[in-house]
Each structure stands twice: as structure tokens, then as C-alpha cells.
Amino acid sequence: MDVFLEQLINGLTIGSFYALIALGYSMVYGILKLINFAHGDFFALGSYVGYTVLVFGSAVITTHFGLWGGLMAAMIIAAVCVAFVGIMVERAAYRPIYPAGRLPAVVSALGASIFIQNTIMVIWGPRYQAYPASLIPNIHIQIGGLHITMLQIVILIMSFMLLGILYWIIQKTTFGAAIRATALDKDTASLMGVDFNKVIFFIFTLGPALGAMTGVMVGMYYRQISFTMGWNYGLKAFTATIMGGIGNLPGAMFGGLILGVLEMFGAAYISAAWKDVFVFLILILVLIFRPTGLFGEKVAEKV
Amino acid sequence: MKIMKYLAMIGVLMCICMPWNAMAAAKPVVIGLQGPITGPWAYEGQMAKQSCEIAAELINQKGGILGGRMIEVRVVDDAGEPKTGALAAQRLVTQKDVVASISTYGSSICEPASTIYEKFKKVNIGYGVTAVRLTQRGYKYFFRTCGRDDSQGQFFADVVPAKFGAKRIAIMHDNTAFGKGLAEDTKRALQPMIDDGKLMIVYYDAVTPGEKDFRVTLTKLRETKPEVWYFTGYYAEAALLVSQAREIGITCPFVGGNAAINDEFIKIAGLNIAKGCYMTNEPLPADLPYEKAKEFLKAYKDKYGEIPSSPWPIYAADALNIIAYAVDNTGSTKSDVLADYLRDKVDGAPGITGPIGFTEQGDREGVPFYLYVVDDEGNIVVSK
Amino acid sequence: MIEETKRIGMERFFGSYQSMFFITLTMFIIYPFVVSDYYIDVAFFFGIYALLGLSLNIVLGEVGLFDLGHAGFYAIGAYTTAILNTKFGVPILILLPLSAAAAALFAYLVCSPIIHLRGDYLCIVTIGMGEIVRIALINNPFNLTGGPNGVYGIDFPSFGGPFVIDSSIEYYFLIWIVVALSIYGLIRLQNSHIGRAWNYIREDEVAAGASGIDVRHYKLLAFVLGAALAGVAGNIYASKLMCVSPESFTFWESCLMFCIVLIGGMGSIPGVLIGAAFISLFPEIFRPFAMYRMLIFGTVMILMMMFRPGGAWPRKRGGIGFASIFAKKDVTDD
What we know:
The structure holds three protein chains of three kinds. By secondary structure, chain B is an alpha/beta fold. Helices cover 45% and strands 16% of the residues of chain B. Chain B has two domains: 29-147 and 288-357, Response regulator (Rossmann fold, 3-Layer(aba) Sandwich); 150-281, Response regulator (Rossmann fold), CATH 3.40.50.2300. In chain B, strand 13 and strand 14 form a beta hairpin. The relative contact order of chain B is 0.13. Residues 17-26 of chain B have low confidence and may be disordered. Chain C has a two-stranded antiparallel ribbon with strand order 1-2.
């Protein structure tokens, strides 16, 4: 039972990472019908920015902020920087290409992904970087046979808070309504007074910022970061997006969490080496029986 | 008609990419170095490159070989991947002026590469390739200046359980040729003690390289209550494994194989976790007592400010030394002559890592092992 | 007078496509004899990518199915060759059709249940399929695939006796002859009823179905043919490298193939060649830029899509098909 709980917590932790990244995918997809391959790299970039903040700010952090404050600072700075990069990428690589349609935009997104990935490599070098161990709070908690760390709990709480905030933004605020309206029908939404450009601006700040915060959390959790890590997480998050029903934001969140838990249980009870196969098989099964994802609505075929 | 238009276009494209690579000068004796200059083990590759260049410089300063011919090191990058390694080997064997090749770091990269060297009859000397079976294939042109996993496995069996008084031993590898090989050899070396009932292997499994989350695997490891834990993979995974293991409450001593612990390991794991981690290893450069080693390390330090932090670059330098030695003594650059000479005639040639000689199969004769530990300051020192 | 005739003759010769064809062909033949082995290898990989691009072009370009797992088929072909050759000593050339068949069979089996999925859902399922293949190869099922180290010691293709393909030049000709044959076959296919049915499905799946085209059958056919061609590429690749390992068949490789088709122009065979040239030659040409090389690569990809969104050499024919895929009428749709 302890082991089961432990795996569940592990799974939820990873799942919340996936969910946060998946939200960025899903928002962009909902509005632009574009698979934003660069999104995973926003996440990696955020991780590196957070790393830099921690390394260069270590003196200030230890004297003024304390460890938790330092992590918060790293997350916020990373979010701001990467949101800025997100806007830049949208302006430079996507905006000029929308009119040409979806497929060129996919190639452009891949190009942007390569660009960001290699920018990271040029700036920080190709080697693994490690979040400084001395700046990461390291408190063990043992309840019976259950081993977890304080960091894990904080990360879990933080990501659920972020997910909650986002859910609130999307479901309850005007901005959220604008996003949902645009995703449903762009033209009608703009006739109703929704500023398409503002919506785009919004999703390209919010998505990358969330990705960046996730990046810092992943950096703290595993400590080891590499410039190619955006690909792996991006792929998993994209899977989560589809599993939940693409363009459906709550679906993306649940897709992420389900994926994380499935992955952990797959690893624990089937085989660690085959866990990704297990995840993809489940995805394929889901799609065979529900071709628009778990929470996707049935789309009528347009003739 | 379309077909012609585009074929024409392709033709033009191909012309643009005509070779600009310069003709190699005929004079120097060219020795190839295939190593991971980029990629996950770029760290090792760069040091190997620097070491070989220093070794070549030292020989060149003394007037070169064959009465005044200089040694040139030609580096090809295998990025630490078997595929790129195979291509890199092909690049070297098709360059006619390359006399022999030093190749490479990582048994799994060496294995396909050495089949190519063998097919094209070019002497190749491995410097960071310890899987036993590499020299069991009856290859004529393959040698190595480093030791073998079975001697390391034997060393582990002789020293580690006794040191920790451990009866429950966990062995974990990473499914690569190197990791799996060392794990198997260790298991074999422990077998007599298992038969005597002195100890038991409670865990024997693999992790996937490149993975970041090992908590599930480690939970399983924890349930087996090991008293000592031997990981035979590379440092990138080792660092994550140890950190995560300590997080979930595995407290037993960690012993790494000879690729598991280096400065990067300490950086990633953090000193708090890294200190007290052990490794079985060939003697580190600083612990080498030989005259040639002192000369080499001085030259290296003068140029790069510090001595190599792992033993492998030194073996690369020794591979260069022994090739130069063989070319000089036989007066020939023919592969067959060199291979025969290395196999039969070389015995106790001077090397940085001690006298060099090869067995019938191409293995290095007599390489010692030490048990190292990370001390409180983050230095890797011989464990007492 | 004679001078005049000569001049016109020259003009005609150099102005015509025929002459261009022969000039290019000659250059193709001369090329490997004047450059170093290194550049022959570069041209060889150009050929491999051209073949892979052609194979994905059937699925993505002709039928408009998003396939981002094509490396899986490529892997099946390569591993079929590698395993049957090293374990059972089957000659490489016999394995060429066998690898194609194995990849095609695999495509048939895995694509049958998922062929009804649309657009991005199909896309993620193919990604999943490619990843499953790769992870399975890493995990060494039945001790066949050699795990992360792969299979090595694959033979060279041999015609018997001394006729063995083992040098860079011979591989260069092998791959380009295969590419040329494939192009010939694909042009024939484009103009057949199959090609037209494919394009109809791409333009409007529902209408195609309503006009009596068996949509499912033709989509599966595209996957099977595309996979077979990728299997051929896998066979040649395996024997050239003499070893195969899972990291040659990553998601990234599938993305590259996807880019080849889109950069060149969907459904356009010359486009595929240009796309393949870009993907394989660009990193070589820009090697001197070292670590900035991939940065430039990414930038150029974005720029190309900005200035030629329909691809470098879009297919010119009635109903190029972008109209249905793209929200707006495409500029290259002439």
C-alpha cells in the first residue's frame, strides 16, 4: 500500500508536469490548429533560465530570500523571460505563416524548435547542467513506509495551484471566454468583438510562462537538465493533449495527470523499460474507441 | 519533361557541394583518433583529444619518429553513438594516409566501429572499451590499452563485500554493452561466494539510459534491502540514481563502476550526496607512479591548467604512444606488420600507465584496479 | 548559314529539358569520381533521405495523411535486414524485397485499426507507433535486436563472386539507381487511377467516398506502399552502415522526413528531392559554422515556409490539393 501511494504521488508529480505543458499545446492548438512543436523547448529554456537565476543569484538567495523564496524568484523570472521569447517566436516564426495554412506552420514550428534548442546549446553548452544541490531544499518525510520529500509535496501543490488558476482563468474570466469563443469559431468570435490578436498574445505569453515554470520545477525535481529535454516532455505533453481531446483545456489537464499516473503504474507493475510502450498503447486504444480523445466532443463531418 | 528540370537542379546543387577539403600533406605520420568529441560524453572525448595531442607533441619535440617524421593526430567525432561511430570509422579507413586509429570511448560504440576497421584491415586500439567480448572475436587488428570488465568484476568481488561486510548485494546496469558486460562479469566473479552461501545477489536489473525518473525502479531496489549497491553504467544516470535513491530512503553504500563517478557526477548529484560514494576504477592519472606519466601530466597541466580527471584519456595517449613506438621500431606503416608486431613483439614498452604489452587476443597485460571514494571536499581519492 | 543552324542547334540543345536531363545525369555519374569518399557518403545519405522522402510523400503528399512515425517503418526494414542477415546469413540483396515486405506487412497490421482516425489524431497515433517500435528495439525482445547497441556485422550486398558492393562509390550508385527506379514507378503511379483516387481523397475525403472510392482501402494502400519503400531505404542503410541501432530511428528522424515533403512541396517528386537535398546537404555545407549550424538550419526552415509556404517546388497540376488542407487558397496553387 505504501508503495502504491508512493507511486501514485510520483505519477501525479510527473502528470502535473505533463498537464502544465499540455495546456500550452492545447491553447495554441485550440486557436490556431497548429501543433506548436516549439512548446517543449520553451519548457527547456525556462529550466535553463531558472538554473541561471539560481546559480548567479545564489549569494542573494541564501542571505535574503531563503531557499523557497529563491525557487519562487527563479520561477517568476523564468516565466517572464520565456513569455517574452514566446511572443517573439510567435511574431517571427508563426504570424507570417498563418495565412499559408496549417502544414507550413508545422514546419515552421519544427524550425523554431530546432532554433530554440540550439540557442540553449550555444548559450549554456551541450553538457548536462545541474541545479545547484545546495540551493534545493532537501527535507525527507517518512510516514510509515512512505518516503517522499518536501520538494515533491511543494511541487505537487504548486502545479495543482497553477492548474487551478488556469482553469479559473479559462472558465470564469472574460479572457478565458474569449479564448474559448475563438477556439470554437474564430470568425464569429471576432464579429462579437473578440480581438484575435489579443487572444494570440495572451496564449503565447501564458503558455510559455507555464512551460517555463514547469521547467524550473522539473529542474528542481531531477536537478539534471539538458538542452534536448524539451523534446521528450513535449512529446509526452502532446500525447496528453490528444488523449484529453485536442483543444479541450480541462481535457489536456486530465490527460496529463492520467498519462503521468499511467506511466508510473506501468513502470511499477508492468515493466520500467516498457512503460512508454504501455502509455502509447493505451493512447492508441483510447483513440480507436474514442477517435476524438477522452473528453473531446464528436465533430460532425463537414461536407 | 519535369524530371529533367529537377535533375538539372539537383546536379547544380551537387556541384556546389564539391569538396573543398585540402589534400593532406604527405610528410607526417597520421594517427586517427575516433572519440566522442560531442554528445553526452563530449567531456571524455575532449580530454582524449587533448591527451593525444599532448602525447604527439612530446614525441614530436624529441624529433618525431622514423628519423624525423612528425606525428599528426586526425580526430573524427563519433558523438558517442554507434551509428556515428561506424561512419567515423569509415571516414578514417578510407583516408589512405591514416596509419592506425585510436578508437574509442564506450564499448557499444567500439563494437560496430571495430568491425569496420577489421574489414578494412586497419590497426585500431581501444582506450575506453572494457567489455570482455571485444577481444573474444578473434580480430586481428583490434587491441586495447585499458583493462577488461572481468578483472574489474573480480576486483569488486574480492574487495567490496568484505570491506562493507555486505551479504545482500544489488547489481544494476544500463543495458549498454559496457554496463551489461561489467554487471555480468561481476555476477560471475561473485558466484563462488554465492555458492558458499556467504552472500547473495538480491537485485539484478537494468535501467534505461537517458531516462530521468528512476523512482519506480529504485522503489523495487529498496524493497530488496541491499547492503551494497553496484551500478555499472555511466555518470549521467549514476548521479540521478544516487540522488533519487537517497530521497526515497535507500541508504546503503553506492559503488559505481569505472564510468560512474567523475567531476560531472559530483556536480550533478551535489557534494552532499556524492560524498561517500565509491567506485572501482583504474588508477587515476594523479596516482600513476611512472616517469613517463609525470612528464606527460606536467605537459598537460602546463597547457590546460589541470590534469585529466578520468583515467581514459591517458589510455588514449598510451594508444598513441604504442602506435608511434611500433611504427618507429618496425619502420613500417603497414597494418599487417604493425598488428603482428603489437601482438607478438611488444612487451613492456614504456607507457604513461606503465609498461605496455598485449596478450594473444589483443588485451592489455596487467592493469591494476583501485577502490576510490569521494571525500568530503569532493575529491576522488583512493579509499583506505 | 551553317553557322546559323549550328547556333540554333546549340540553343535548342542547351535550352531543352532533354539536354538538362543528360547534363545532370552526366554530372551524377561523374560526381563520385572527382570527389573524396566523404562527399560521396554525403551524396549517399542524400539518396537515403530522398528515398525516405519519396516514401512518406505517398502517405503525406498524395493522400494527405499526417504520418509522423514513418521512422518506424524505416526501422522495421533496417532491422529485418540486420537480423536475418546476421543470424541466418540471408544475403542483403535477397533481403531487399523481404525488408520491403516486412515493413509493408507491419504497416498493414498496425494501420488497419487506426486508419479511420483524422488529422492530428492520426498524427499522434503514428508518433506513438514509431515510438513503440523504437522502444521495443531498445528493450531487445527475444534477444533479437541487441538492445541499445543494435545489431552489427551486417554484410555488404553481393551479386555473387567478386561483385560486392563495398565502396562508397558503389553504394552511391546503388542508392541512386534505387531512387531513380522509385521515381519512375511513382510518376507512373501518380498518373494512374490509384494516384487520382489518392488525390481525390486528399481533396475531399467525404466526396471521394460518396463517388464510390473505397477510402479505407486506398489509405491503407498508401501506408503499405510508403512503408515498403521506407523498408527498402532501411535495407540499404543497414548494409551501408554495417550496423543498426535504435537511435537512428527516433521521432526526430520522422520529423525530418515530414520536413522533406513539406519543404519540397506536398505530392511533388522534384520537391522531395529538393527537400532531401536541403535536409542532408545543409548540415554538411554549414559544418564550418560548428555549433551555430543547427541554429541556421532552424532559421532557414522558418524562412522557407515564410517565402515558399507551398514548398520549394510545388506540384503543378489541376487540384494540387492545398485548397482543402489550407484554410485559404494557396498562393502556389496555379
